[in-house]
Known about the structure:
The protein is mostly helical and 402 residues long. The chain has a single domain, classed as MFS general substrate transporter like domains (Growth Hormone, Chain: A). The chain is built from 20 helices and no strands. Helix 3 packs antiparallel against helix 16 and helix 15 runs antiparallel to helix 16. 58% of the residues are buried. The C terminus is likely disordered.
Amino acid sequence: MALSAFDRLLIAPLLTSIARGLAVSIGAVSLVATVHFISYGLVQVGHGWLSDRIGRVRSLRLALLGVTLGNTIAAAAPSLGVLIGARAVVGAASGGLVPGALVLLADENAGASRARKQAALIAALGGGTTLTAVVGLAGNTNGWRAIFALTATVSLLLIPLLGPNRPPPEQRPRHRALRTLRRPEVRFVSLIAVPEGAAVFGFVVFFAPALQSLGSSLAVAALGTGTVGLGMVVGGIVVRRLTGRVADAHLLLAGASLLTAGYLLAADMALAPILAAAALAGIGQAALHSTLQRWATEAAPDARGLSTALFATGAFGGAGLAALTGALLPEHFLALFIAGAASACAAGMIALRYRVGGDRPSSAQEAAHPSIDATAAGNHGSRSAATSPHIRCRSIDCPRPR
Length: 402
């Protein structure tokens, strides 16, 4: 998870260095991030299908191999075109890392245990984000090519460290799995993922270049990215403690509100407001994204890889749209931050709609397929999803078991 966050956000602190090294504009280099995000999102369904067919760990190994190959090419890229192509390969491969890890965790945990561990994964993502800032600063000093080479090396070393392959808990006929994906729960998480992805993954990358546009040093710009990561770490810890005590809808709305407030604060275009906005964005991401991630893994238990992949497709499709907006509006940071606030607000409004009149995604689905999560719960000494009170409750605000 940390490697995925590190690699995904790597371009932001390296924008200036890459532009200088390849003699192109920052706006042109932004296309590297755009293509990476779009390729990341487009392959999600393929990764989900592969995970459901060949097993979780085996699909993760293939993803790491692709990340290694793409970053090796990026490290030696002689032109912007080659760099864009290489990072497209990386995006297509790394698209399987986070969903694969989430599905593996969901297969082996249920109920509150699953929620707490997924909140911990958000903290790990925050650690990777913070590391991006530190290493990105080193890349501006010692060369961006070395950073891509380092990422390729780490990816390669992780492959043999993965445990034995673990197939999905239950294989179901393919046509039944595809029919499951048409459920309203899956459509909900896929829809809300688009504006949510733009807010939590897309527009946050512009904090660092915005700081540089104000005349800040590279170290201060890197601090902007690192502050997002630290906010995610803090937010992940808080969300983990609140799990089971606070309704999911309240976490969603709190996260969307923090993100909206953060982007509006950053629109002031001053050093302190942007750093404060980065912290709010990190905390808001932990509350909003971890809850939606869990809903995605629970929305279709008999096709968990695919349902999680559809959520990721929406999220990183939204991030790709945000990056494209940045390429079309280079250095228009006020407009970009307002767009970020609008994206977060849209995600909150969709959550509010389901809070008032909708069902909690996964309630009906997990009750219809209790055997899958009951197995995971039994293996970890917790109650099965089929007997949990929050599964029987039809409201999105139903209390979670303590």
